[in-house]
Structure formats: structure tokens, C-alpha cells
């Protein structure tokens, strides 16, 4: 659908990337990855047509539509949520107006036998069929499904968008983009403003979407669940892997090892050539050979090795006074704004050293309870902060409290103590402030950069109780790993408000779920919570599908109906046996295909196989076959479950 050939982008003297070529096919799910500053967002802008490359061609197939969601955009505040979402269907409204005019013309004209009248009827019929195929009669239901999937309540639909935060308005823009159903979706950090449930909804939406998807995301779980192909921008080049992100990480490591071996061999060859030239430069008998070696040296194209920071940077929190055994105790805590109750009857005790997560839909009170703990807003009930508790609090507005007149380096230099002062530049580099960026003034930093700087500042302050409200929104994967490792080693207490499952996994041991005005405690990690929650929702779904009165109605059936149902039962048993056989066949096919995949992956793991593009195509074909058979298996299993 989109062909990229010989793409080059220059900012100043050094190219951002060059000689980049790839093709985006229908149903591709592509993760665009690379270090911050590698050019991922620039690539999305070029694909969307918003930015022109220095050289190269981006060819878009005729009739293909492209939808682009940038990280930051200018949002409209003049409509309600529903009216703004309806803007996605402007093309339907235009067609609706056209049909209304044609209908009126048909009603006004009386030349029923004329050729032009019959042509008008044919045109109206064709356009009306197109209108129905485009979903002209049910677009409102589609809008409602999408908005509720992204976390909006029905009561929000008629509220003006100006009442919502920037994050919620970004959700409206995402909803509009998804509703337009473009052939190619370009998404730049789409999960930054979504909670866990909305991310899962978006994952499912993208999986069943008929078009192609190209996304940039630092949410590892999200890209693993959505994508089947990975394009890495590194060293100014693009490397295309026909595999998911986790598999890409393994293959990239192997590729880098091959590059290192090739680089070492080349350096050895260069040194030997230079030694020969130096040794025989002034010997007349070797003049021809020396000149030949010089020309040979000039022709060598240096082998580049992918950038990879192998330094093991570990942050350790500054030592702080030991807190009491119970840093936070809530008894019957309630918060209401007028008639609207955010939560009530909150009873929780957080022990010293515990690391807990606050999760739930946006607007259910996670940040509100944090503000109650910080004593920033009034509340009802009893909330006790323990003995010697020193709180380090990170929220989005923390970035606004930085001194605009200091440089990035000076901001951290003022809070760093002890040996950590010797590693300030390493720490800044880990959080994307490497090189000249550390000398920038705070006042010129973007919102994301300010948030990252505020995070580093917090990490270096002596506290024994950390409260982090969405700490990963502006961090890349390496920065998140550095932060996660630091929190793991932190011997104090931690509350993390986050939607990032990968970040929370292995970090928290208790989850507090906010919803419906209540706060529920779940012992275990984030995936234990998600698994349990999914099981609960399935049970609830089953209950709604099987009303309590149904059993009594079955018992009241007359005898003739029972006899008929016996014949129907025999037929149903026959169908069940057939379905069971089809399901078993699917399982056998899946097993065979998985064995073939293992054999291909074993070949791909060899130095020869890693560079064999045909193997990647075979691997991708097998994966697609498995996906198709699994889909068939799932359909048959659901059918069997309904019959049973």
C-alpha cells in the first residue's frame, strides 16, 4: 500500500537516516523502534505526508487513506464530545446531503419517462447503496462503542470537550481517527493517555482492524500484543524484521554480534594493510605493491556497529530516615465534589517497604486519593501518615516547579550528593539528556523533557516513601528500565499510579483497583490482578446471558415440546461430535505448524540464516497460517461452547 524507496532526511550536516527502503502491506502491524532521536516520529510524519524527506520517494497506492495520531496536537474546544467524534463521519454527512438533494429532485420532476430521470434513479440507487455500506445508518452506535471503549461514560457524550483534560481530548482525537477506518494507521505513543482497560480495548481493536498499523510506543506489552513486524532505525539505517518485538530483540542481538565480528575482522585487515604500507613505503622494489595497498585502503567502506549502550547504569536512592511500620492508614475515607462521590468507605493499610499499584479507569479517583495522602485537598474520614514518613511525590505538575533559569545539569547538581555527583552526566544520558542537552536551560525544555528532569531530581532526594503518578509517560524503554531497577532496590514504600503493565510487572506486590466509588485490594502482581479481573468479568457476562428466570421457564414446557426437544437433542449431539472432530484437527495442524516454525527459527539463529531474508518470509508465512488456524479453532470452540 505504501512503498518507501531510498529515503534520506538531513537536519544540518549529519543525516538523521539515509537509504531507507521498505514496503507497508495490508494487514501489516509494524512497530517502529529505535533510540530517542533516531527519527521514529519524523518517519511517521513523512509517511503521513506532513513532512518532506531530503531525498527519496514515498509512493502511496491510489485510493489508500492514511490516519495519523501525533504525540501532541492542537485540539478543538468548540463542540461536545459526541459532536467532535461525529466529525469523523463528515464524508457520510456530505453523501447524506447529496442523497437528500437527489431525492428532492426526484420528487419535484415529472418527466418520468425521460432518459435523464432514469439516470438520476440509477445514480440515487448507487449512492444510497454506498451510503448504507459506509455505515450511514448506524454510525452513532459505532461512535458510542468506540468512545466507551476508550473510557468515556455515556453521560460524557454531551459535555463540551473544554471540560476535559488534554489527555482525555487526545482520546477523542484517537476515537475520531479509529472511526474513520483509514487503510493505514500511524500512531505515535497512542497509550500515553490511556488506562489499562482502554489499552486492552485498543489492542483488540487494532488486532481485528482490516488495515495496516505503524506505531511508535514505549509500552513493551502493547507493541508485543499488537505487532507482527518490527522496523528498527539505528545508525541512520532501517532494519526490517518480520517478527514481533520480543523476537526482534533476540535477532538484533545476533545481528550486532555478527557486525562486531565483521568490524573486528575489518579493523584487523586495515591494521595489517597500514603496517605493510609503513614498512615498505620507502623501498623502491615494493612501490607498486604499496600503491596498490593504499588504493585498497581507500576503497574500504567502514563497517558500522549498531549503537548500543552497554554501560550498566544503576541508580540508588539517597539514604533516608527509617519510617514507621505503617506509612499510610485509611479508615472510611470519602471524597465528594458536591453530589458527585469520587470514592467512599476506603479502608487500606500500606506497610513499610510495600510497593503497591493504584489502577482503574481515569476519573475513578486514583490521583484524588494521592492528593488526599499529600494533604492537598480536604476529605472525610480518617487518614494517618506514619511516623518519620518523608514523601517524594511525582505528578505531572511537578515539572512546573523546576527553576526555569537553571540548566539541566545544574538542576541535578544541586540535589546530587556523595559519589553520585561523579555520575551526573551518565544519569542524564540515561534519561535522554546526553551531550549538549545537559546544558539546555530548563525554560526551553518541552513538557516531556521537564517531566523527565523532575523524575531524575526526585530519584536523588532522600525520601522513604515514593508516590509516582504516571511516571513512565515520557520515558523510553531504557529509561523505564533504569527507573524500575532503582525502585526495586529502594528499601522504602512505593505507590505507583500507572497504566503501564510491563513497568508494573515484577515491581508491585499488591494492587488497589479504583472503580464505582470503591477501592478494592488485590494481593499479587499486576498480571495476577488482570487474570483475576478477566475471570470475574466473564462470570458476570455469563450471568447476564442466563437470567435467573430462564430455568423456571424451561421447566414449564409442555410434554410435546419435550419430545420435540429430544429429537433436536439427537441432532445437536451429532453436530457437537462434528465440531469436536474439527477442533481436534485444528489443534493437530497448529502443532505441526509450530514444529515447522521451530525448525525455521533454529536456522534463523545461525549466522547464515540471520541474514537470509527468504527465511524471514517463510517464518512470517507460517506464523500467518498458525494465526488463521487459531482463529478457526476459536470460532469452532465458541460454537461448541454455545451448543453445550
Strand order of the largest sheet: 5-6-7-3-8-9
Averaged pLDDT, please? Answer: 79
Q: Hey, roughly how much beta strand do the residues contain?
A: 15-25%
- For the record, give the distance between the C-alpha atoms at the N and C termini, rounded to a whole number: 44 Å
Number of strand elements: 18
Structural category: alpha/beta
Q: What's the main sheet like?
A: 6 strands, mixed
Mass-distribution shape: globular
Helix content: 40-55%
Radius of gyration: 31 Å
- Ranges with pLDDT <50 over ≥5 residues? 535-566
Counting H and I runs of at least 4 residues, what is the number of helices? Answer: 21
Descriptive report:
The protein is an alpha/beta fold and 644 residues long. Helix content is 48%, strand content 18%. The strands form four sheets. It has a six-stranded mixed beta sheet, sandwiched between helices. Strands 14-15-16-12-17-18 form a six-stranded mixed beta sheet, sandwiched between helices. The protein is globular.
Amino acid at each position: 500500500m505504501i512503498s518507501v524507496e531510498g529515503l534520506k532526511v538531513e537536519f544540518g550536516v549529519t543525516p538523521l537516516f539515509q537509504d531507507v527502503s521498505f514496503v507497508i502491506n495490508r494487514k501489516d502491524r509494524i512497530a517502529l523502534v529505535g533510540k530517542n532521536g533516531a527519527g521514529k516520529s519524523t518517519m511517521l510524519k513523512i509517511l503521513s505526508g506532513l513532512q518532506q524527506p531530503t531525498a527519496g520517494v514515498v509512493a502511496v497506492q491510489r485510493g489508500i487513506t492514511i490516519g495519523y495520531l501525533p504525540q501532541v496536537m492542537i485540539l478543538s474546544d468548540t463542540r461536545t464530545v459526541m459532536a467532535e467524534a461525529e466529525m469523523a463521519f463528515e464524508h457520510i454527512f456530505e453523501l447524506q446531503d447529496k442523497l437528500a438533494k437527489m431525492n428532492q429532485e426526484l420528487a419535484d420532476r415529472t418527466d418520468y419517462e425521460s432518459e435523464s430521470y432514469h439516470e438520476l434513479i440509477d445514480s440515487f440507487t448507487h449512492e444510497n447503496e454506498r451510503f448504507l455500506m459506509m455505515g450511514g445508518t448506524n454510525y452513532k452506535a459505532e461512535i458510542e462503542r468506540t468512545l466507551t471503549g476508550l473510557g468515556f461514560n455515556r453521560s460524557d457524550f454531551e459535555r463540551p470537550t473544554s471540560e476535559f483534560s488534554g489527555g482525555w481530548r487526545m482520546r477523542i482525537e484517537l476515537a475520531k481517527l479509529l472511526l474513520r477506518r483509514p487503510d493505514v494507521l500511524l500512531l505515535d505513543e497512542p497509550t500515553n493517555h490511556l488506562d489499562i482497560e482502554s489499552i486492552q480495548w485498543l489492542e483488540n481493536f487494532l488486532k481485528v482492524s482490516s488495515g495496516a498499523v505503524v506505531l511508535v510506543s514505549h509500552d513493551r506489552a502493547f507493541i508485543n500484543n499488537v505487532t507482527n513486524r518490527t522496523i528498527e532505525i539505528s545508525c541512520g539505517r532501517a532494519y526490517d524484521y518480520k517478527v514481533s518485538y520480543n523476537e526482534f530483540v533476540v535477532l538484533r542481538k545476533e545481528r550486532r554480534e555478527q557486525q562486531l565480528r565483521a568490524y573486528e575482522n575489518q579493523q584487523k585487515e586495515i591494521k595489517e594493510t597500514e603496517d605493510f604500507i609503513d614498512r615498505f613505503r620507502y623501498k623502491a622494489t615494493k612501490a607498486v605493491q604499496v600503491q596498490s595497498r593504499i588504493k585498497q585502503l581507500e576503497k574500504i567502506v567502514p563497517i558500522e556497529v549498531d549503537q548500543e549502550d552497554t554501560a550498566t547504569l544503576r541508580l540508588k536512592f539517597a539514604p533516608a530516615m527509617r519510617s514507621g511500620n505503617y506509612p499510610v492508614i485509611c479508615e472510611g475515607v470519602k471524597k465528594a465534589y458536591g453530589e458527585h462521590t469520587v470514592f467512599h468507605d476506603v479502608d487500606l493499610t500500606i506497610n513499610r517497604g510495600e510497593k503497591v499499584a493504584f489502577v482503574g479507569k481515569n476519573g475513578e479517583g486514583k490521583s484524588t486519593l494521592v492528593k488526599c495522602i499529600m494533604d492537598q485537598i480536604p476529605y472525610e474520614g480518617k487518614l494517618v501518615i506514619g511516623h518519620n514518613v518523608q514523601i517524594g511525590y511525582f505528578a505531572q505538575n511537578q515539572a512546573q516547579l523546576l527553576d526555569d533559569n537553571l540548566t539541566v545539569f545544574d538542576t541535578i547538581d544541586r540535589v546530587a550528593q556523595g559519589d553520585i555527583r561523579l555520575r551526573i552526566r551518565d544519569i542524564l544520558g540515561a534519561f535522554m539528556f546526553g551531550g549538549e542537552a545537559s546544558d539546555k536551560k530548563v525554560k526551553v525544555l518541552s513538557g516531556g523533557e521537564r517531566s523527565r528532569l523532575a523524575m531524575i531530581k526526585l530519584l536523588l532526594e532522600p525520601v522513604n516513601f515514593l508516590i509516582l503518578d504516571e511516571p513512565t509517560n515520557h520515558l523510553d524503554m531504557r529509561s523505564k528500565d533504569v527507573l524500575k531497577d532503582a525502585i526495586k532496590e529502594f528499601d522504602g514504600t512505593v505507590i505507583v499510579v500507572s497504566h503501564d503493565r510491563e513497568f508494573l510487572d515484577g515491581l508491585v506486590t499488591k494492587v488497589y483497583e479504583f472503580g464505582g466509588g470503591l477501592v478494592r485490594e488485590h494481593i499479587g502482581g499486576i498480571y495476577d490482578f488482570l487474570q483475576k479481573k478477566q475471570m470475574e468479568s466473564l462470570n458476570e457476562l455469563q450471568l447476564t446471558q442466563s437470567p435467573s428466570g430462564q430455568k423456571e421457564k424451561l421447566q414449564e414446557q409442555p410434554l410435546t415440546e419435550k419430545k420435540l426437544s429430544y429429537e433436536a437433542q439427537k441432532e445437536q449431539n451429532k453436530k457437537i461430535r462434528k465440531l469436536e472432530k474439527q477442533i481436534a484437527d485444528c489443534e493437530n495442524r497448529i502443532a505441526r505448524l509450530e514444529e515447522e516454525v521451530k525448525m525455521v527459527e533454529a536456522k534463523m539463529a545461525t549466522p547464515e540464516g540471520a541474514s537470509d531474508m527468504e527465511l524471514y518470509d517463510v517464518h512470517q508465512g507460517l506464523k500467518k497460517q498458525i494465526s488463521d488456524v487459531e482463529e478457526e479453532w476459536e470460532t469452532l470452540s465458541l460454537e461448541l461452547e454455545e451448543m453445550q
